[in-house]
Design brief:
Helix 10 links the parallel strand 14 and strand 15. The protein has three domains: about 60 residues, Urease, subunit C, domain 1 (Roll); about 290 residues, Alpha-Beta Barrel (TIM Barrel); about 190 residues, no CATH class. The chain starts with a helix and ends with a strand. By secondary structure, the chain is an alpha/beta fold. The protein has an eight-stranded mixed β-sheet, sandwiched between helices. The protein has a six-stranded mixed β-sheet with strand order 3-2-7-16-17-18, with no helix packed on it. The protein has 18 helices and 29 strands. Pfam families: Adenine_deam_C (PF13382), Amidohydro_1 (PF01979).
Length: about 550
């Protein structure tokens, strides 16, 4: 009798479960502010623009109601907490739908990692959608903990959380028709396929779009984003902890383009969420930059829903899922009340959730390393160096003369040249690769992590070999995470025992430990605002221009190990 009940309530013949009274509703289509109650019954909006009775009535006089926000692309693992803590962290900020790609945990634990997210999504307050990770591993130039082919992904497709195929990172494999890539594209043809094509343009971009890919979150300039919009891609404006593209793309977000643009965070940690916010931060920042407020809210709601085929949300309208955010001030975007699927987001809602046991414990199986393992042999002074560009995951491919001494090219803090190393941690081959990175500003010690996109081997940066070895070995002892070491002792650490990626503690505890980690890193001279996620991205060989994996330094433009 659910359908009949909702119709009866909509006509005012029976009371609703919940009525929101006194607020105006911002229409995502016309931009009008509509008076009248909003009636919610059985998790759906059934009435608006009229008076309704309800079992519970909430007075929101003077406020504005907008649809719940939709994060169109993110990796929950990058929040460093489980899906349950992520839910508790961002749902009160108005995020009612999160479209995640669990390829971080999938690169460690394979299909079991994706199934963990699928099971967890059945019990969260917010609606977590779990797209299927298309690149496990992301390339052939790294050692991951698992590999998923087209058949393995098809076996996961029937879960109700699945929309389609997550970001297709191996764009060279698409345009050059790698058989494994083609098998996945054929398997998901006609459905939703997320894109990932940094700096791709011209005929290569045409080829990538012709493969049936529908979205793109890697555009870092308005010019790049404009071409991608013109070629039919929905552009997702990204503002993560490292990848900060919002300022560059803001001029492109207008009432004309808003139906084809969305918002996403990709990788955002509890430090930034606590200190700045999540999608709410993006919304108020874009409005403060001069973007049309309706265009911004459309991108965060209705445009996002339509881009991903979620026809049941994105508007406050009868028949839609009751995802609603109450705001005292549209420009300030700080929620006073959030409703998700008809449920008020509050402590009781989180306490009632069923918690699924985590997977991928004890996943760090790296060999014990010695200080000598961090030497970097070479005879010629000319040396490739990864150049950090703060606020971007794109890196420079620098060539710098570094003279060998006794067969070793040593770090040179005076020139901001630190050792970077990747240590295979899945227990498969024991690879150790070393190189150089510029941009951390480190003058002493070392930092290390098991968060290293997307293979999640140990990645370490430092200027002292003893401290590099100490930090790397400590990661095995704590089941993964982050470590800062200096002078033969550990200054700060954050254990991440779930796949070496996520804590089992609360997001408040993780935030507190990240504050201590950031302070410890700065005590080494580190100048980057977010050194740990920056550390993770220098190991990702699908982002131009120079990266490092356990195979060695990777020229991404040539897509080969050098």
């Amino acid at each position: 009798m659910g359908l009949e009940d909702r119709i009866a309530v909509a006509r005012g013949e029976a009371p609703a479960d919940l009525v929101l009274r006194g607020a105006e509703t911002l229409c995502m289509v016309t931009g009008a502010r509509l008076a009248g109650d909003v009636a919610i019954h059985q998790g759906q909006i059934v009435g608006m623009g009229a008076e309704y009775d309800g079992a519970r009535v909430i007075d929101l006089t003077g406020q504005v109601l907008v649809p719940g926000f939709i994060d169109t692309h993110l990796h929950i693992e990058s929040s460093l907490v489980t899906p349950y803590e992520f839910d508790r962290c961002v749902a009160p900020r108005g995020v009612t739908t999160a479209i995640c790609d669990p390829h971080e945990i999938a690169n460690v634990a394979g299909a079991d990692g994706i199934r963990y997210f699928q099971r967890a999504s059945e019990h969260t307050v917010m609606d977590i959608r779990v797209n299927l990770s298309s690149c496990v591993p992301s390339t052939h130039m790294e050692t991951a903990g698992a590999a998923l082919d087209a058949q393995a992904l098809l076996a996961l497709r029937d879960h109700p959380s699945v929309i389609g195929l997550a970001e297709f990172m191996n764009f060279p494999g698409v345009i050059h028709r790698d058989p494994g890539c083609m098998a996945k594209l054929h398997a998901f043809a006609g459905g939703h396929i997320d894109g990932h094509a940094p700096l791709l343009s011209g005929r290569d971009l045409n080829a990538y779009c012709a493969a049936g890919i529908r979205t793109e979150h890697e555009a870092t300039s308005a010019e790049e984003a404009r071409e991608k919009l013109q070629k039919g891609l929905r552009v997702l404006i990204r503002e993560g902890s490292v990848s900060k593209d919002m300022v560059a793309l803001a001029p492109l977000l207008t009432p004309t383009t808003a139906p084809y643009m969305c918002l996403c965070t990709d990788d955002r940690n509890p430090l930034d969420i606590a200190e700045h916010g999540h999608l709410d931060h993006m919304i108020r920042s874009l409005i403060a930059m001069g973007c049309d407020a309706l265009a911004v809210y459309r991108a965060a709601t209705l445009s996002a829903a339509e881009a991903f085929g979620l026809k049941d949300r994105g508007q406050i309208a009868p028949g839609k899922r009751a995802d609603i955010v109450a705001l005292p001030d549209l420009a300030d975007c700080r929620a006073s009340l959030v409703i998700c699927g008809g449920q008020v987001v509050e402590g009781a809602a989180f306490a009632a959730r069923q918690v699924v046991a985590p997977v991928a414990r004890d996943s760090v199986r790296a060999p014990k390393v010695q200080p000598s393992d961090f030497r970097h042999a070479g005879n010629a002074p000319d040396t490739p160096v990864i150049g950090i560009l703060e606020g971007k995951i794109i890196t420079e491919h620098l060539r710098i003369d570094i003279a060998p001494e006794g067969g070793d090219k040593r770090p040179d803090p005076a020139r901001d040249l630190a050792r970077v190393a990747v240590i295979e941690r899945h227990g498969k081959n024991g690879n150790i690769a070393t190189g150089f990175v510029r941009g951390f500003g480190m003058g002493q010690g070392a930092i290390a992590a098991t968060v290293a996109h997307d293979h999640h081997n140990i990645v370490a940066v430092g200027v002292e070999y003893d401290d590099l070895a100490l930090a790397a070995n400590r990661l095995s002892e704590i089941e993964g995470g982050f470590v800062v070491a200096q002078g033969g002792r550990v200054l700060a650490e954050l254990p991440l025992p779930v796949a070496g990626l996520m804590s089992l503690d609360s997001y408040e505890d993780v935030h507190a430990r990240l504050v201590a980690l950031r302070a410890a890193a700065k005590s080494l001279g580190v100048t980057l605002e977010e050194p740990f996620l920056q550390l993770a991205f220098i190991a990702l060989p699908v982002i131009p221009h120079l990266k490092i994996t356990d195979y060695g330094m990777v020229d991404v433009d040539r897509f080969e190990v050098i």
